[in-house]
Specification:
The complex is a heterotrimer. By secondary structure, chain A is an alpha+beta fold. Chain A has helices at 2-23, 37-46, 55-68, 127-141; strands at 47-50, 72-77, 82-88, 96-107, 110-119, 122-123. Chain A has one domain (35-141): Alpha-D-Glucose-1,6-Bisphosphate, Chain A, domain 4, CATH 3.30.530. Chain A contains four helices and six strands; from the N terminus they run ααβαβββββα. Chain B is 34% helix and 23% strand. Chain B has helices spanning 2-9, 12-25, 30-33, 53-59, 68-81, 133-136, 172-186; strands at residues 37-38, 60-63, 85-90, 95-101, 141-151, 155-164, 167-168, 191-192. In chain B, strand 3 and strand 4 (95-101) form a beta hairpin. In chain B, helix 4 (53-59) runs parallel beside helix 7 (172-186) and helix 5 crosses helix 7 (172-186). Chain C has one domain: 2-Layer Sandwich (TATA-Binding Protein), CATH 3.30.310. Helix content of chain C is 36%, strand content 34%. Chain C contains six helices and eleven strands. Chain C has helices spanning 2-15, 23-26, 33-40, 49-62, 88-100, 166-180; strands at 41-44, 66-71, 76-84, 86-87, 105-106, 110-123, 131-143, 146-148, 151-153, 158-162, 185-186. Classes of the chains: A alpha+beta, B alpha+beta, C alpha+beta. Chains in contact: A-B, A-C, B-C. At the B-C interface, helix 2, strand 1, strand 3, strand 5 and strand 6 of B face helix 4, strand 2, strand 3, strand 4 and helix 5 of C.
């Protein structure tokens, strides 16, 4: 009799402890909000400076080049110089590329454009991606000169 | 022997019946059948129900005032009275847009997350979970847009349009009701626009 | 024998080719980009950009669109309309497949579409006497549920389509041109 109760009690304890163990939240990693090494490496790839004075024209140029690339513009904010866009990785409609571009005026005659591309939920660290993007952007920025 | 009977069987009547069976056998879900069916869904891009004169007349009013700010405030307060959440407000261009959810029929359980659903971003990418939740309640969504333009030196033209359950609102009634409330808020009479 | 053929055919149709496009390719201009840009762009001889934007919003409203986003400082406008995407043809196709596959294959059909128009205006010269207007029409379609043998395909599958029909763009610019009393020049 007691043997059976012992066994049942033991099983309940075991199962209970296993369940309880599952309920504990994972420890917050110390560097949750710190940039990763990979991020620091690609930061230089993601940024380009242009000798352009008109920040507004640059923002419009960014939007125009994103439209050329088949992106859907989600957000555009002039005071902050921010453009957010996304597109499906066609012909595959499960994967999405989203891109955030910021335009910042450094000096009167120079501005910095930074593009952050994300593939689904992972940041893209392939330099070719950013090269291609800036190549199309240059085409669009200087298309309307004069 | 078999080929001969097949040839006999393949008359236009039987083929038609077979196609009809193919159609019916599928058994649409009730949610599906409430969507309008058509031959080419791309036609919807260009379809504009407001080409009907009756609706167009009801959607537009002219007001004898040039006070844009006051007109904006009146439209916003009317929308608030109707429980719309104003999402877009562009004073320079004269556009106000909002949406609300109405309980037109009994709900099949509440799903609060769908009210936060923003479909203009390419989905909250839940790749492996095709969340059908938001779509199920699309029947409750009403979208409303009002544009304000100056006409001549003394008039403002207000043009409204509404969308409900995947269709533009074609009935002049709702628009008339909206303008009645707007006129009360403005203490001005709206005129129809030719 | 027939079953295998049907299986293969239906598999090919259903799963499609889940090809993987490299992200780098997706940020490259293609040979068709200039053609698409020409189709989607017109310029107007006016310094009044706001008038163009406001008239565009009115034209889109006429077409049943609801304006969702407007940032006039950068000349950006986005309007959408949600409509049914059901098509008779897809149901006929689905029914035939169902019969041919002997009840094993139920294709998801298009159900719900969101047609969107993204519009942007840009001054074309320093003096800002010429304005360029570019509009892109696209639609996102959500599919219904389906079944492949024992596997249930939940609803909500989506795909996106850029509208490449030149007539739609021509008609939009014709309407806009009429609304602002200006001629729409091709680039």
């Amino acid at each position: 009799m007691t043997d059976k109760r012992c066994i049942i009690g033991g099983v309940v304890l075991l199962v209970g402890s296993l369940l309880l163990h599952g309920c504990s939240t994972p420890e917050t990693p110390k560097d949750l909000l710190a940039p990763t090494d990979a991020q620091l490496k690609i930061r230089s790839m993601q940024t380009r400076t242009f000798d352009v004075t008109d920040r507004n024209a640059a923002i419009r140029g960014v939007i125009a080049s994103l439209q050329d690339l088949g992106f859907i513009i989600e957000r555009a904010n002039e005071p902050l110089g921010l453009v957010t866009a996304a597109r499906f990785a066609e012909p595959n409609y499960y994967d999405v590329i989203s891109i955030t571009v910021t335009v910042r005026q450094d000096t009167k005659s120079r501005l910095t454009i930074r593009a952050n591309a994300i593939y689904n939920n992972k940041p893209i660290d392939d330099p070719k991606v950013y090269q291609n993007f800036f190549a199309s952007l240059e085409r669009s920025l200087f298309l309307t000169k004069g | 022997m078999a080929p001969r009977t097949l040839r006999h069987a393949a008359t236009p009547g039987t083929v038609g019946a077979a196609l009809l069976c193919a159609f019916l056998i599928q058994g649409c879900s009730p949610y599906e059948t409430r969507h309008q069916n058509q031959w080419n869904s791309r036609d919807q891009i260009w379809l504009s129900e407001s080409s009907q004169l009756k609706v167009r007349a009801a959607q537009t009013r002219a007001f004898d005032t040039t006070d844009r700010r006051r007109m904006f405030e009146a439209i916003i307060s009317t929308m608030q009275d109707l429980d719309f959440s104003v999402e877009l407000l562009d004073e320079e261009l004269g556009i106000i847009s909002g949406k609300k959810f109405i309980e037109a029929e009994e709900s099949q359980g509440t799903d609060p997350t769908y009210l936060l659903y923003r479909p203009d971003t390419l989905l909250l990418l839940t790749r492996n979970i095709h969340a059908w939740g938001p779509f199920q309640h699309r029947s409750n969504l009403v979208r409303f847009t009002a544009t304000i333009r100056t006409r001549g030196a003394s008039q403002l033209i207000v043009r409204t349009s509404a969308q409900f359950y995947l269709q533009a609102v074609e009935d002049p009634g709702p628009y008339q009701q909206f303008f009645r409330s707007l006129e009360q808020a403005l203490f001005l009479q709206g005129r129809s626009v030719e | 024998m027939i079953r295998i053929a049907v299986c293969l055919a239906s598999l090919a149709m259903l799963t499609g080719c889940v090809t993987h496009t490299e992200p780098a390719e997706l940020l490259q201009l293609t040979a068709e980009t200039p053609k698409h840009r020409a189709m989607q762009t017109r310029f107007f001889e006016t310094p009044n950009e706001k008038e163009l934007l406001s008239a565009s919003a009115a034209v889109l409203q006429d077409l049943g669109f609801q304006v969702e986003e407007s940032v006039h400082e950068v000349g950006f406008l986005r309007a959408t309309k949600e409509r049914s995407a059901r098509e008779y043809g897809q149901y006929i196709q689905r029914g035939l497949l169902l019969i041919l596959s002997l009840g094993k294959l139920l294709n998801p059909v298009d159900l719900h579409q969101k047609i969107a128009a993204g519009l942007i205006t840009r001054p074309l010269n320093q003096a800002a006497t010429k304005q360029e207007v570019r509009i892109v029409f696209y639609r996102i379609v959500w599919k219904s549920d389906g079944q492949v043998d024992r596997q249930y395909i939940p609803p909500g599958q989506q795909y996106m389509e850029m509208i490449r029909d030149p007539e739609i763009y021509q008609q939009f610019f014709a309407k806009l041109s009429k609304a602002v009393f200006l001629e729409a020049h091709t680039i």
